Amino acid sequence: MQKAVAEVLNAIYEQDFLGCSYGFRPGRGAHQALDEVGRAICRRPTGWILELDITAYFDSMVRDQLMELVGKRVSDRSVLRLIRKWIQVGVIDEGRLLVTETGTGQGQTISPLLANLYLHYVLDEWFEEIVKPRLRGQASEIRFADDAILCFQYREDAEKVKSVLSKRFAKYGLTLHPEKTRLVELGRYAEGNAKRKGKKPGTFDFLGFTHICTRSRQGKFTVHVGTMRKRLRRGLSAVAQWCQEHRHEPVVEQQKIHNAKLRGHNQYYGRPTNYPCIWKFYRGVRHIWRKWLNRRTRARRLSWERYAGLLRQHPLLLPRIMPAWTGR
Description:
Layout (H helix, E strand, L loop, with lengths): L1 H12 L16 H13 L5 E6 L3 H4 L2 H8 L6 H12 L2 E3 L2 E3 L12 H21 L7 E6 L2 E6 L2 H16 L11 E4 L4 H7 L6 E4 L2 E7 L5 E7 L1 H17 L5 H19 L5 H20 L9 H10 L15
Antiparallel strand pairs: 1-5, 1-6, 2-3, 4-5, 7-8, 8-9
């Protein structure tokens, strides 16, 4: 039922959603959002980035306000009654039913659409129609679900928006993380300004990537991305845990699982300029696999020479850049 209602609502709200939104929408995804970040910084007069982090977004949405926003485009009482029942349903934790007063409950089929709809009115529409006309310079927004950045030409515009953003979000029950919501100087003049101050250029994290100002081989300004250190450590920790729990399975089966993990990692993190990080992940998987194969038995240890022979028989998927360059 939720899937059927979500399909109908998607057809309605796709007419309203703005181009700055990339999460949970047909034909759009994280890589398109990352491409837009590169275009916004390299091709527009962007000098400052406001990085947003909403604390416990899915659990903080005010249900009455959410239903009011849904009611702007949906008038069918049966559909509205169904949606209200879905967002009020509790969760079972260790045999106990827990019912909260706010939030939509992650995991439901309709939750991503409702979360997108909420931020469309709270942030996207407000920023496009009310904020941008009042700014001195150019500004743009890139959002994927509850992960968003705001790009500004001038610092005073960025600070002005940052000062009112908390009040705007508080009106709808949302809270910005005080430490993770920060203003970063990042643009074609950021590197020179940082050097004059004796500092390194600023960076920001978005969708699992750290964005860094640098120069291309031709000496032109560009932005490179690298896998966030936290994401890299978390990925390798998951591989190590799996190897520990399944170290006694046949080597062929282990190879299949590792290659599936490497393939998924390459498909998301294998972006241009990120080859060093995906190579680091590959080497980490290779070392972890050898470590836990050594612990299968107390017999002769698996030397690097023997391990190299095993890898020739059961090769691991090599790092590979998957998406094409932006604006190819």
